[in-house]
Amino acid sequence: MSLTKELKERGFIHQSTTENLEEVFDRDKRAIYHGIDPSADSAHAGNLVQWVFLKHLADAGHKIIFLVGGATGMIGDPKPDAERTLLNPNEVEKNINSLKKQAENFFGDKEVEFVNNYDWFESIKLIDFLRDIGKHFTVNELIKRDAISKRLEGDTGLSYTEFAYPLIQGFDFLELYKNKNCTVQIGGSDQWGNIISGVDLVRRKEQVEVFAVTTPLVIDKATGKKFGKSEGNAVWLAPDKTSPYQFYQFWLNVSDENVIDYLKIFTFVDLEEINELKKQTKNNPGARVAQKRLAFEVTKLIHNENTATSVEKVSRIIFGEETNQSLNEEELDILYKNAPTLEVLEDSNIVDILVASDLAGSKREARTLIESGAVSLGGELLDSLEHQVLTKDIEADYKLLRKGKKSYCLLVGKNKTH
Fold this sequence. Notes:
Strand order of the largest sheet: 1-6-5-2-3-4
Distance between the termini: 50 Å
Largest sheet: 6 strands, mixed
Structural class: alpha/beta
Strand content: 5-15%
Radius of gyration: 26 Å
Number of helices: 20
CATH superfamily of the largest domain: HUPs
């Protein structure tokens, strides 16, 4: 299968400036760039679409240029509904360093060159920029861009700072074409207007054809919301913002209607295998085999295989799929940080423990739960109202108290809350 065909089947292609993408991706090896503005100190799941796209291209032998916008990050592209909050230079620099480190870890040994557009904008004079670049854009065409037109229609207005953003991004493409022989830019479909500015500028200044390709915005079909920090539902790649366990759970909990699309876009699982997972999901949705594969693969991609294995193991324990499994220190730490806990300081009756853990609202309810066979401790079903929870057992090993399949509490001894 050609690269272009696979990219299309996986769902990466939304818009492009050419109908002949085979010419762009399947023939000569090209320098291809993608830009990200340092508006935060971490990328998120919405950015991951382009990153995986770039990795497919790098695997095929194309050179990737990863631009972190030190200059554009000082301004911010126009949002359709509000003015962006301007970051100070120290915040921008901090975010640039964090994003670059994340991207370096993600791409590993692939041929990726990192650039910062502040390096060329720092020395540009305003008059020269307006004469040499500004004259190639008309106000008429700029106000037709979606983000700009929506702001002009609303009450918030649009500052000249944000209005000039497409010119600045367009100049990035011109600079990279002239100095890096870069002929392709990729980005999200919400960036189409800004990306086209670069294509048009290179054509007008250099009389050559360069290309633009966008990926579709990833939409949760169940909620209609897109991935991204502006939606308030960001899933960050940085482990201190979204822990690997939380990250894994996010992918594990995607709906059946989304999971196959996400496997195609966010993982490198073979398309034939994805089709098999699709069949299994249709035949036995309760097993959630596709979600489990998705969660493991994306966590492995962003963190590492050992971490993915650990969070998968802890997840299976918490949700009752595994019992009495030995855990290493890293896995125990994940368990203690992600399960509700109750510190047990003395030997106690199971009825009292159920109430103290909030798994039962009263002693009467606790007794009913035990008598109905709904309570287990450490994977063992409890059937006696007189069962004693011993501190020496808790100190010796972790003990997960469970009510039914979905409610649980981790019992811990003194000074063992990690």
